Structure formats: C-alpha cells, structure tokens
C-alpha cells in the first residue's frame, strides 16, 4: 500500500475545503459536458469559483444561519455551491431532484430557504409554480444560457454569470477568509431531509462537528492510497454520498461527477475509480447483469459456475484481507474474477455498501468473484456512519464494529441505541419528533432491531416499525426475506406483506429486461407485460423462486402466496426512495385491491 500524504487536523467542513484548495491539484474535480467531453477543475479554479459564489450570496443578503437550497443532480457546481454556502456560515438544504414540485416546495418552506440553486429551467419552472408557498427570493440555474433569459421566471440568475459578475478582489477575499474562520464545530452545516418512507420527511440538523467527527471516525476504516479517484453518483442530498465525498476530499481524492446513473458503467471504464461506494440495489443490479451475461452460452455458464465454486472455497481468506494463493483461484481470477472487477474500472481499492442491508448471499457472491464488499451501517441522523467492516476486521452478515468515536448498546426490546459526536442536533422545527428518538443524555434510538456479538460486530435485523406481526403473534423481519428473493436475476424487487394477517404474501417486481429475454427464449409473447406476468410458465418460474426461498425459512416466515406485478419499481415511479428503499405505504396503497384478493379467503384458507 502506498504511503498516505499527511493531512492537517480539521474541526469544520471549512477546514476540509481549505485543505483541498491548498493541495495545488490539477484535477480536483472532473465531469463530462453535454458533448461527453471530459473537463477538469483545478484546486485554484475551484477556490476562485467558491469565492465568487459566496460573494454573490453575500450581495443578496445571505448571512450566517440563513438557509440556501440545492436541487440538482451530481455535478461540480453542486460541490462549489455547497462549499460557498458553508464558507459564509449559512446552512445547506439539499433537495432530491426526483421529488415532485409540491414535495420540494414543502422542504423549501419548512427550512425557510431564501435562495435555490438548481440544474436547469425545467426544475426552476416547476419550483416557480409553487414558489408562492415558500419564502424563496431567487433561483440560480446551473445550465441557464444568459443570452436567452427565461421570461417565466422572476429574480433568477445564471450560475455562469456569478463567476463573471463577482470576481475575486482583495477586499472580497478578506471578507471570505474572515467568515470562513468564524465557523465553529457547533455551527449548523446542513438540514438533510429524511426520505420519508412511511410518512412526512423531517429535516435532520447536522453540525460541522457532526460530519467532521464522522469523517475522522470513518477514515481509519478506509485503505487510502496515493492519488485516489472516485465517482460521485449516488444522490448528493443523501448524507452517505456527501460525507464520503468530504472524506475523500480530505484525502486529496479526485472526484468525477456523474449526474445520470446510466452513464456510470462507461464512466467507470474511463475514469478507473480506486474507491467505490454503492447502495445494495447497485450491487444487486451489477450481479444480475453479470449472471445474465455469463448465461449467454453453455460454456460461459459452466466456466462461471466453476469459478464461483472455487471462489466460495476461498471466501474467508479474502474477507480476512488476504489474496488466495491456490492455483485454482488464480486461474479463476484470470478467467472470470478480473473481468468482473474490470466492469468497475479494474482499479477499485475499496468497495463499500450502505444505505440498506446488503444481504449475506449478495456479499458472499461478490466475495466468490474476488470482491469483498465492506458493508456498513448508519442513518441520516448519525452523519451517517455508525459501523462498517474493513480489511482485518470484517465479518460477513454483519455491518461491522462501531467507529471508534461511536458508542452502541441495545434497548430492552433489541433496538439499537447510539451515542457520540456525530449524532445530530435534532429535527428542524420538530421538538416532539426529536424528543421521541433523542434522549437528554445523548443516546439516539435508531429504530433498528439489532444484535451485537462478543467481538462488537453489529447485525441489523430490520426496521423496528417495519416488522410484520402475523395474526398468530409471530414477528417477521421482511428485509432478509426480500433480499433472498432478489438473488434471482428475474426479480428486481420484492415487498413482503402480511401484517395482522394469517400468513405472509409477497409482491414481486420483475427485472423486466431479464424476464422478457427469458420469456422470448421460451417462445412466450412479451408485447403485453400485464399478460406476460400472468402467463402460466412465467408464474411457474416465479413459484420455483419462491419455493427455493421458502426452503431456507422457518414455517411462520414462508411466503404462502405472491403476485408478480407488471411494473419495475423505481424512484421515478414513486415506489422507491432516492436511496432505493421501498416505500411500503405507497405499495400498500397502489396494490390495495390485489393485496385484498391475496387474502380474500383468509378465514377459510389453510395457508397459515
């Protein structure tokens, strides 16, 4: 492992910014423009642009403690704006661009944001239509063409104009430096709105000290190398991506911004990242794609099955942080494993997963192809990392040991409680909601049911509020069972149902591309998806998937009935949160009639 450059002590996010711009890097940030041409931003250029944006904000009356929102996909302007807001002591309010205008307006109104930075006029027009419900004073467009003003928007500016109209001067630099230095660890840095899977979203108040404590706590778990590279593609409003970007900036990592998920595979091949973080759904999709590709011919399928079997025999060696030396493993690596790694760019040093449970089977599958995915765990309210596996201290099926600056214990009902400097200050304007989860002595109730083994490794069972309780009184954790269903390449997603019912059932969202390819090979017409998912041979295929999962479950956990829906759930469709978690309330409402039919004869059924 290469030596790691020395890093100065940090107390605020502004300290990370100063360290970054003083690094004198030629390519601090990279991105692709509209023509897919790669562009680069040096440390000096980044500093100039942050100072210009901060000067514009001061000109518009933004002062310490004011809120400024960013609604955009991942791009260099997002990061520059973020640092400019923080430099003034103002508070960043990141908003997911996938939200509807009323949802975004609700967060703008709740936070009292005065200025909004957004990608383009489509977003701006949508917000302008509900602007009367907010206190917004101005909208700044990253993609606006100043020669063609948008007559439908009032009080708007183009981002490019800020860089021209507010040049750096000795006086402005002195003001900027003074404000930068005034910030303390206790100052509020950001309001991060929770996804709201079960109800109203809440703004978690995170201080500079909260996030920096998480950066410093997570840093020893990452095997940093000289000249690291990473792709920022998970939504920046998600604190998981944002904290990781701050951490990598502190490590002088070059970051490439990817605003569209479908561009990620090509970007990995071009940029060759050394660090890769993902939510479980990203890893699951990569696995499904590999399995689909290797099943293209009997020979490739046979070689892949052999390589998986070899890999399984050497999993524990890899998980322990060592490279297997057996000839069979080295041959499998040459034929198969390195091709899977090549899909990530071939140079990834750290694979990290968070945001939701990865699933033991998925973890072992990747270990069986030579990739150890270090699973971690955290919440928005904890800035976010609570625990994470890392080389030398990794245990499959767990989310690792707590960070050195985080305490953990279990409540009497098994709920995980945590305490430490990264725990949030509370929910913005919601003292009652804060009191429900944050105790006076600093312990935060995560809402997750967990176990802690004798070595301190944490295992998360499920969300406390998502546990299903059958009419027979049995408690069932849905996520582990859903993860088992998603192992099959034909399953995109699954939602277990059965709370207060006699037996469990499942809604299954198919991987439509994989299903249509399979069905075509079976001579089944795929032009009508509603008919496709009810075709007898398709249902028989899914019956086998469910049966295979049921064989691994206790009798009260087994799925007695299921429904394959003709929809592939997504953020855009409203079924998934921006962090790709299920919106169970939405699913229960959308498929209410189908669920009713699954339980229509419950009173007389022997299914329970």
What does this structure look like?
- There is one protein chain.
- This protein is an alpha/beta fold and 608 residues long.
- Among the domains are: 13-207, Rossmann fold (3-Layer(aba) Sandwich), CATH 3.40.50.980; 395-465, Luciferase, Domain 3 (Luciferase, domain 3); 467-598, ANL, C-terminal domain (GMP Synthetase, Chain A, domain 3).
- Helix content is 37%, strand content 19%.
- The protein has a 5-stranded parallel sheet with strand order 4-3-5-6-7, sandwiched between helices. It has a 5-stranded mixed sheet with strand order 12-13-14-15-16.
- The longest helix has 17 residues, at 43-59.
- The radius of gyration is 25 Å and the shape is globular.
- The mean pLDDT is 91.
**What's the β-strand tally?**
26
Please describe the biggest sheet, giving its number of strands, its sense, and whether it closes into a barrel. Answer: 5 strands, parallel
Task: State the shape.
Answer: globular
CATH class call of the domain at 13-207: Alpha Beta
Q: Summarize this, please?
A:
A hairpin with a 5-residue loop joins strand 1 and strand 2. Among the domains are: 13-207, Rossmann fold (3-Layer(aba) Sandwich); 395-465, Luciferase, domain 3, CATH 2.30.38; 467-598, GMP Synthetase, Chain A, domain 3. With 608 residues, it is α/β, with parallel strands linked by helices.
